[in-house]
Amino acid sequence: MLGLPAGFWVLAIITVVADLRPLAGWERQRPSTGVFLSSYFTFTILVVWGLLPALAVQAAANLVGGARLKLPPAEFALLLLRHAIALGAASLVLGPGGAETLRHGEGLHISNLDNKVAAVVTWLVTNYGIVIFAQRLADPRRPWRSMLRGGLGLNILAKTALLFLTPVVVADLHGPTYSLLLLPVLAMSEMIAVVDRQRESLRRDPLTGALNGRGLEDVIASLRDRPGAPADSAALALLLVMIDRAHDVNESFGRQTGDSLLIEAYQRIRQVPGVDSVSRLESGAFAVPVAVSAGSRSADALASDIVAALKAPVNVSGLSFDVAGTVGVVMAHGRGADFATLIQHAEEAVQQAHRQGASVGVYAPAPVTDFASRLQVLADLQSTLENRAEGGTIAYLYQPQVDLKTGELVGAEALLRWHHPARGLVNTEQVIRIAEPTPLMGRITERTVDAVTAQLSQWNRNGVRLSVAANVSMQDLHEELVVEHILARLAEDEVDARQFTIEITEGELISDPDNVRRALARLTDAGVGISVDDFGSGFSSLQHLRQLPVTELKIDRHLVQNVGTRADDRALVRSVIQLAQALGLRVVAEGVEDGATQQMLIELGCPVGQGWLYGRPMPAEDITRMLGRRLGPNGLP
Asked: Is residue 603 flagged as an active site residue?
């Protein structure tokens, strides 16, 4: 080799230096099977000077590239092996005189190109055959298509174009002019890098830099297909992180403030140990896919760590905001659940956590017997509504509503309680969730209306003037008979309609406003109040407040509970109160539990409060005993 011309040594130096160039994204993920720029130059050396010089230069370049990438010994051995075998196979195709025609400058002709083209094809088939074989050996279940889609196809295409350029360029180049080969190679490499960056940008959220939904699907697919992933049990978990009140901050303080909050949330999530990738699905929702294997941390433990990381407030533009989040966890059992189903189940887990007042919810698929148990609940509920003993009894408790300035009892909220002889006290939310899709929901509403109007009538006969609110499903308001029933019972019991208020949640208000506008209008025309419950949990209903005949806003308890300690919650509550005053609406603050919260609400101008400070839900006779008593700052007479 020492007798080789200067052109060879120039090209050898270029070849070694070429592998110092950073690799594209696909190559960084799989460095031992990626595309190295040196392979183009060493093929040129093979064509011009033969196999041994090509092998020597290729080994030197791979040594430099492998050291730069810090490849482990096994991967470095694979790198050397695949290039050496590919060069050897191409050399066999070229034959003993394969390079002679180009060395003597005979020019290009179809007769002296056929074996060069065959050598290129042989190199490609051999090299990438080894790449694919190695990947299949490491992961037998991995689909062929996923390898090509992951970037291998693009690299094969680029390498093919460069290798077929070799006979054309080398034919008339001699000596140091071989350095000109660097230009087209670097140009092609840069094109690969640009395409790689563009492809990666399609998988990223432009605001936070997190993966988007498309990128999340790719990660989930790779986790499912990874070596050692179990085929018949949970191979991965998906954690859905919902940033509490992110939409509220965005709407109330501007998009820039909301964006800063989301960026900070993303940074905190990705820094939690055990989190490898994070995806942003929508405004305040992030997804974290987690590989599940023997010895790994449990998904719910990781979820708790994420909640802890989000607890500390963040300062934006001089304001302190709560970045707290709720995490829903779902396990992907087997390979049956598709991406959309996983997201749906994770959302259900978040909703479950919200209902339970917890920070983490774990999705539990309903057992086979669940359908039967739901049918039994419906059967028992029907027995209860028909006043049969086997179904138990339905009663109504009342939680006081107090004038914050005077301490006087001004109203109450009626709350349903179902006592079953076998199940005991049944969770009200569970009752509503099971009954709502059935005609029994309308019967529950009628029972509630009957009980409340009867109680109001009794208080009126005793000379006590009080207003009562009751929760009504928006679904019931679609039925003319329910509206007729409300108006009829108020008339029969001789109750002033202004004493009765129906409560609908903020989510229900925005779900179908057009179809309930007429029903609400009939009720408010008669004097019945319409209250928006849990207001401030989404702020999405603001646009409907002027379109629907709403008379009252109930501020969400999660805002109220922190109004004395958190500036952002205080600002949101102040905004709700001012909005209600501007629209002529009554305001009730839910979740008042201590005197400090009551005092802050008074300073903010809130007229009415409801919460444990004034009493837990109680029988009607206890409400009667409270009437006429003034409650002090500690909720006591």
From this structure: no
